[in-house]
Amino acid sequence: MTLTQLSYVVAVDRYRHFATAAEKSYVTQPTLSMQIHKLEDELGITIFDRSKSPVVPTEIGEKIIKEAKEILKQSKHIEDIAHLAEDELQGTFRVGIIPTIAPYLLPLFLRSFTEKYPNVKLIFEEVVTNELLSLLEQDHLDVGIIATPVEQGHIFEEELYYEPFLGYVSQKHDLAKKDKLSIDDLEITNLWLLNEGHCFRDQTVKLCKKQRKDLLDSSMIEFESGNLETLKQLVEQDFGMTLLPYLAKNQIDEQCAKAHLRYFEDPVPRRKIRVIYSREYLKQNIIEAFKNEILESIPEELKKSEEGVLVE
Hints:
The protein has eleven helices and 13 strands. The chain is α/β, with parallel strands linked by helices. The chain folds into three domains: about 70 residues, Winged helix-like DNA-binding domain superfamily/Winged helix DNA-binding domain (Arc Repressor Mutant, subunit A, Orthogonal Bundle), CATH 1.10.10; about 110 residues, 3-Layer(aba) Sandwich (D-Maltodextrin-Binding Protein, domain 2), CATH 3.40.190.10; about 110 residues, D-Maltodextrin-Binding Protein, domain 2, CATH 3.40.190.10. Strands 3, 4, 5, 6, 7, 8, 9, 10, 11, 12 and 13 form an eleven-stranded mixed sheet that branches. Helix 1 packs across helix 2, helix 1 crosses helix 3 and helix 1 packs across helix 4. It is globular, with a radius of gyration of 23 Å. About 5% of the residues have low confidence.
């Protein structure tokens, strides 16, 4: 029995598909399947029911997987303890980050972080909040970057910055003539939203509920998408409006910004971006370096906590 075999078992349990598990484990499917078969033969059991699609663990397989996760977690902790004795930061650092933060934040600090800490291997996984928390629970991730509070006693949370919401309005929209938006404007129809599961969608809905609950179900939800870029393109083709996170403006060209981008007047709605990790975590030195690099890269106006309306 090896740690590699156990990691393959956990991967198949997560993705419920051998090919996907192999891809995520950076091996070929035959290699992954062979190692799991070897483990099953060694133990004299069947871990996965391969007759079903997607594959599912057997009853004894569920127990094996639970123990495998704990063994892998402890093995990572041993590696972390060993790295504590080293002067420079090194090792693998796995980061979960939600889709409405990742494309806008990562380009700001990745280059400087990798130049300062060349021996730290960063692995990013872009997932929605609920899945991120599950992966953190399993110790598949070292830290997460999210935009909603966590009410779990074993998860530690530190604030990073406060990000305002921006309006992105089509030129044919009633709000296009306004220089600045107010929260009251969000009772207007044709507000495009992300799909269920995205916290940015939930925050947008909460923001709208502050104004007109009666309009929310009847007229505001006209179209839903899995990513903000699709919603931006709809607006640019003169369909409705949407909300964007502040850092998204860095990726909007000057012409589109002038035509579609609208800031909010005071009180400005904003979300709190935070980094989360296990309270027992040992990679505190890397976490601090990671957090500091983010804080050095973001605009100063995002570090002000006392302004605006916080939307959780």
